[in-house]
């Protein structure tokens, strides 16, 4: 495949951008393809090659690349009225009202500009509200490029996972394995009165897609309630993606105190939000004392894009479409994996999917062969990856260096590492899905 234009652009980029990119996951090997434009469910690279796209901007593009006319019109009218003002606008109120109407645990919101900003502010809020410093996070979870969660290790010995983060930040972070109720209970027994919050993705979406075991989030809810700590769901990926308008918290029937949003609610523009109970959200300045602010927060163009995207999704049954295609992909992949690579796992839910290049523990060949799926209909979850460490044990090199490359050669653009979720959009068709399954079959 000819990628001369991309190679030349990368060569220029290396002179002026760190690693030639503006987000580390984009630096694919041997060099990234540069995108010229999107088209429905496809992207077209700088050399004119077209790929079926399941990266979808790493999640924001619920409607795909070609936005419906009414979404484009809403965006354009806010662009031509002047992009932003430093004063409030009606569209911010409308998007907040839409979210509050649909997510029962969210009574109020503060908009910000990225998922990272949302988790930073949610943690400050939890610490300010409780007067405590420690935050419990899940190993393998991702909450953005922020110092308090770029922490690795376990409950006994946490350390920054990047240079530039003071050791003292990690002292306030307690990473525990996802789905391990015993460790969660132990950590609360030992540190209950120092813990401000538990922060977790309801479904790990940045580490292979891992589902909670039955009752796990309820255990976190009970523990936080018993110890006067807050439960924060990071729904930056799952919000308005999994469980339709109610989010993953609706699926698992657990109400967190705070929820962070991003991605889909900005309709493809930079966004984040912290939502939750009034008694907490009102503690942000200027209603309360806990500082929160931002030049671009509630940006009218972003708000219009998000609002019109969600309205369109409601009126056009977008979730029915993307979830049906997601299910078809997982079912088809399960059959292919059972046949070609029974040691692998098909994971996902609704419009999220991934093939993880491992099973779990010793049951590699029995319980899972036959195509166990780690999704809403899987009854053999026991033998699927359950936490970050299980996914770390996957054949990540094979995924990145062979499988991903080969899929790209065959015209299918997947997330370039083993860990990140892939997404179906409203623009994908049954034909795209069948073509994709055929490609998976050949490449696997
Ligand atoms: N939280 C989660 C669960 C995420 O998946 C991400 C980004 N992938 C973030 C936070 C950070 O969001 P952003 O990249 O918009 O800062």
UniProtKB/TrEMBL annotation:
Keywords per UniProt: Aminotransferase, Cytoplasm, Isomerase, Porphyrin biosynthesis, Pyridoxal phosphate, Transferase
GO cellular component: cytoplasm
Gene Ontology molecular function terms on file: glutamate-1-semialdehyde 2,1-aminomutase activity; pyridoxal phosphate binding; transaminase activity
Subcellular location, principal: cytoplasm
Family classification: Belongs to the class-III pyridoxal-phosphate-dependent aminotransferase family. HemL subfamily.
PANTHER family (UniProt xref): GLUTAMATE-1-SEMIALDEHYDE 2,1-AMINOMUTASE (PTHR43713), GLUTAMATE-1-SEMIALDEHYDE 2,1-AMINOMUTASE 1, CHLOROPLASTIC-RELATED (PTHR43713:SF3)
Record-given protein name: Glutamate-1-semialdehyde 2,1-aminomutase
Gene that specifies this protein: hemL
